[in-house]
Design brief:
heterodimer, A: Ubiquitin-like (UB roll), DNA polymerase, domain 1, 5 helices, B: alpha+beta, Uridine Diphospho-n-acetylenolpyruvylglucosamine Reductase, domain 2, Uridine Diphospho-n-acetylenolpyruvylglucosamine Reductase, domain 3, Enolase-like, domain 1, 3 domains, 5-stranded antiparallel β-sheet, 4-stranded antiparallel β-sheet, 10 helices, binds flavin-adenine dinucleotide, binds FE2/S2 (inorganic) cluster
Chain lengths: 161, 261
């Protein structure tokens, strides 16, 4: 076992790992941060997306030892300091951007990464950026609407389902 | 997935040594290898991570064209190659999705040589040079059929040098579920002729369509392709397309790439 230390949601943390310990397992089993979901476990669905050094990655396809020392942000780090929902999370709630919620942590992390790169995306830019995040419930319209709303754009005219 | 020892060298020399260990295998972005290991189709005893070596990362212009470090993620190539070689940057920016592009690398892609991968067509279509820890390999000698390359035991890619064309374009017909190419074509026009590389079509992996190269070298226009057809006798046949369908796509996409270049 090798002890791996990283900064997760602003706190320095460590846990024991094997070579094969994935970042998703390190977060969920090592640190008890079960907000990061594992859907497909084959790099296809995006449920496990977290930020490593500011960039979205699929934590089910990254070894924990590979990202030792990195800055990691997970869904648990998206709320405001007072515990209220962060702007992207709140927009998902307001616009019914989730149903079962399984894909939501990955959707929120990818959306936050998009907005950091491109603060006022168009609808098609949102759809394109979220290509790697699969949702089995919502049909995507309300997710796209939530991301546009989180960017401060008027979404009254965007069709909902 | 079976357990293994993880090592992350910081120089080419250290990595070369690490890869001589029994059962050692290279790891770059892991976007292909990690799922493969989960299925136990690969079970290395030592995984040598190649993304901690500074000299194999980044994009820079130099002798022989644009040098792209093997460990450079697709997202960085999309950004940093844009002003030097826009067609290459656009290809990198169209691979998979943003999370895949932040991890997947040029070296991993062409080492794997998936018959539907994007990068092999840019490397072959540019007549690029694949540089390894041991030697330099011309693109024409490097690709040796699907999932097969000239790389030998213990050899790993450090960079690829792309001669910069006068014009080029990559046109990909997406397979929307996998986001790989159903079929795609890379066309590049150099002072001494045109190169056309096709991916996602042949059972033999990426290949050059030489009849189109000849025609386009004389007349670089979509019209020059009019009388041509590609031999599709050994093309991929799957749920998404028959060999004849892919054969037609090759011609259509080549014409589109010429128009877009
Ligand atoms: C959802 C999804 C969508 C994708 N879409 C596309 C797409 O549209 N187009 C496309 O082209 N690809 C696509 N890919 C594949 C992606 O580009 C991978 O990143 C790439 O194929 C492998 O690169 P890697 O750096 O992740 O390599 P790894 O997975 O780390 O390694 C792949 C193989 O190469 C070997 N290797 C790695 N680095 C080296 C090196 N420097 N020298 C020698 N051998 C090495 C490894 O041992 C392994 O056998 C997709 C992947 C996913 C998960
Ligand atoms: S669980 Fe990681 S991509 Fe699906
Ligand atoms: S809300 Fe159920 S998978 Fe997206």
């Amino acid at each position: 076992m090798t002890k791996v230390t990283m900064v997760v949601n602003g706190k320095t943390v460590s846990a024991e790992t094997e070579g094969r310990t994935l970042l998703s397992a390190y977060l969920r089993e090592g640190l008890g941060l079960t907000g990061t979901h594992v859907g497909c476990d084959t790099s296809q669905c995006g449920a496990c997306v977290v930020h490593v050094d500011g960039k979205p990655v699929k934590s089910c396809s990254v070894f924990a030892q590979d990202v030792a020392g990195s800055q990691v942000r997970t869904i648990e780090g998206m709320a405001n300091a007072d515990g209220s929902l962060g702007v992207v999370q709140q927009a998902f709630q307001d616009h019914h951007g989730l149903q079962c919620g399984f894909c939501t942590p990955g959707m929120v992390m990818s959306s936050a990464a998009l907005l950091a790169e491109n603060p006022k995306p168009t609808e098609s830019e949102v759809r394109h950026y979220l290509e790697g995040n699969i949702c089995r419930c919502t049909g995507y319209h309300n997710i796209v609407k939530a991301v546009l709303a989180a960017s401060g754009q008027d979404v009254a005219s965007v069709p909902a389902e | 997935m079976y357990d293994f020892e993880f090592v992350k060298p910081s120089t080419i020399a250290e990595a070369t040594k690490a890869l001589t260990a029994e059962g050692a295998q290279a790891l770059s972005g892991g976007q292909t290898l990690v799922p493969t290991m989960k299925q136990r189709l690969a079970a290395p005893g030592v995984l040598v991570c190649l993304t901690g070596i500074a000299e194999t990362k980044g994009v820079c212009k130099g002798d022989g064209g644009l040098h792209v470090g093997a460990a450079t993620p697709h997202a960085v190539v999309a950004r940093e190659a844009a002003s030097h070689y826009p067609a290459l940057a656009a290809l990198a920016g169209g691979i998979g999705d943003p999370a895949v592009r932040n991890r997947g690398t040029l070296g991993g892609s062409i080492a794997n040589n998936d018959p539907a991968a994007c990068y092999p067509s840019a490397v072959l279509g540019s007549g690029a040079t694949v540089v390894t820890n041991k030697r330099k390999i011309a693109a024409d000698d490097y690709f040796q059929g699907m999932f097969t390359t000239a790389l030998e035991e213990g050899e790993f890619i450090t960079e690829v040098a792309f001669p910069i064309p006068e014009k080029a374009a990559y046109v990909k017909f997406n397979q929307p579920a996998s986001r790989f190419a159903l079929t795609a074509v890379f066309v590049a026009k150099y002072a001494d002729g045109v190169r056309v590389a096709v991916t996602g079509a042949s059972n033999d992996g990426v290949f050059r369509w030489s009849e189109a190269e000849e025609a386009l070298s004389k007349d670089f226009s979509a019209a020059a392709l009019a009388g041509l057809s590609v031999d599709h006798s050994d093309f991929i046949s799957d749920l998404h397309g028959t060999p004849a369908y892919r054969g037609n796509l090759v011609k259509v996409l080549t014409a589109r790439a010429v128009a877009a270049a």
